[in-house]
Design goal:
Blueprint (H helix, E strand, L loop, with lengths): L1 H22 L14 H8 L3 H29 L1 H18 L7 H15 L4 H11 L4 H54 L13 E2 L2 E3 L3 H5 L2 H22 L1 H6 L5 H26 L4 H10 L1 H7 L7 H30 L4 H30 L3 H18 L13 E2 L1
Antiparallel strand pairs: 1-2, 2-3
Helix pairs in contact: 1-6, 1-7, 3-4, 3-5, 3-15, 4-5, 4-6, 4-7, 6-7, 7-11, 7-14, 9-14, 9-15, 9-16, 11-12, 11-14, 12-14, 12-16, 13-14, 13-16, 14-15, 15-16
Length: 411
């Protein structure tokens, strides 16, 4: 335990910088704002909910496909340059969404650019450094790192609603872009770095390098594809539920202001899910941890069906969904490092982030399409109940964590 405390003593500045980087990066900001422009864009341009949601799909697919490339670049060139450059570029492009004309080409083009320049500001980069600073307390450290997305869910929706009310939907985008420009970028420049050789935990080094398998070896491992499919199923279930939550709750008689409050509460759930899950991962086999966490949201999806759920149950359902999403984000980074090591972590994690990015992006379109055709989200919510359970059960087949030897080393 004292060694775990020593890890936090030496790595806390990097962890804080990474937390703020995740909070203000391309992972949470688009997903915590687009739900509040669905209505305004639909009213102004006549675009369908599915088409508007597909902007995030363009972003997610682009980012997901680029994740292994960015991860490999972080492995080779170090995460500091990749993460900070991407954060700056993402902020500029995100602000630029507010300048687009009423053209779908412009709408999709901007989201494609966000995926292109913003992927390096996601946990793909920040988590590599944290995995290099922490071993005994890795689960908790990753949970704290990913609290950044929880803080974004707590703060950003309220700022977005205020900005839209004050400046319109166009003004909201440059306001939100101030988060990376004025918060995460300065702290990252001051504090974010990889550890020196003497600062790396001894458990993840051998023979002068980091232990772990290559991506080619990981790709031949059944466990890699089991994790990949599980991530895809859960992302497909949750991504659209999060983005369409303001519209889902309207069907139960709640207001836009209630929506901002619920989105903030989801942020608390994400935070709780990440911290609690991270703490448990350091003590209990990961699939056992996630079995209940990823199956309970099936109940939440059931409760959100129809239009007569009580306000209290809507809040409970949103909390359960957010808690599960927090757990899944912890899992991707933790399982990548525990089953495949650190030597080629960036590329392997990038490949495991790919289904998260792609299916989180496809999910909003699926939810929006069901809404456009049927007038409600019920069919998609029913499908999500099965997706959550299937994703949880798959992880039970992973088996024990491997023990890496000195032969599995990258100098």
């Amino acid at each position: 335990m004292s060694m775990g405390r020593n890890e936090f003593k030496s790595g806390w500045k990097v962890l804080v910088a990474g937390l703020l980087g995740v909070m203000c990066g391309a992972s949470p900001l688009p997903f915590n704002t687009i739900g509040f422009v669905l209505g305004p864009l639909h009213e102004e341009f006549g675009w369908s909910f599915a088409i508007i949601s597909a902007g995030v799909t363009a972003f997610g697919i682009t980012a997901g496909l680029l994740a292994p490339v960015i991860g490999a670049a972080a492995d080779r060139f170090g995460v500091r340059t990749i993460a900070l450059t991407s954060t700056f570029a993402f902020a500029l492009v995100f602000a630029g969404i507010g300048l687009i004309p009423g053209s779908l080409y412009a709408w999709f083009g901007m989201w494609f650019l966000i995926g292109l320049v913003g992927m390096g500001s996601t946990p793909v980069t920040w988590s590599r450094a944290i995995n290099m600073w922490f071993y005994r307390s890795r689960g908790l450290a990753l949970g704290i790192l990913l609290v950044g997305t929880s803080l974004a869910a707590l703060i950003v929706p309220k700022v977005a609603v205020w900005a839209i009310g004050t400046y319109g939907w166009r003004g909201m985008y440059p306001v939100i872009a101030l988060f990376p420009l004025l918060l995460s970028l300065p702290i990252g420049l001051a504090w974010f770095r990889e550890p020196r050789t003497s600062e790396i935990p001894p458990e993840i080094t051998a023979g002068g390098g980091l232990v772990g398998v290559t991506f080619a070896e990981a790709a031949k491992d059944r466990r890699f594809w089991t994790i990949w499919i599980s991530i895809a199923l859960v992302a497909l279930a949750y991504g659209g539920a999060h983005i369409h939550m303001p519209e889902i709750i309207k069907q139960h008689g709640l207001t836009a202001a209630d929506g901002a409050g619920i989105m903030g509460m989801i942020g608390i759930a994400l935070l709780s899910g990440r911290i609690i899950t991270g703490w448990l991962l350091d003590r209990i086999w990961a699939p056992f941890v996630c079995l209940p966490i990823l199956t309970i949201p099936a109940l939440a999806c059931y409760w959100l069906m129809g239009n007569s759920t009580s306000e209290a149950m809507v809040w409970v359902s949103a909390f359960l969904l957010g808690f599960a999403a927090g757990a899944e984000s912890d899992l991707i980074a933790y399982l990548a490092s525990r089953y495949f090591g650190i030597a080629h972590y960036g590329k392997i994690y990038g490949m495991l982030y790919m289904p998260f990015g792609i299916f989180s992006a496809i999910s909003p379109v699926a939810y929006g399409r069901i809404r456009d055709v049927s007038g409600s989200y019920d069919q998609m919510l029913m499908a999500a109940t099965f997706l959550f359970v299937s994703g949880a059960l798959l992880l039970l087949t992973l088996g024990r964590y491997p023990v890496f030897t000195a032969k599995e080393v990258t100098p």
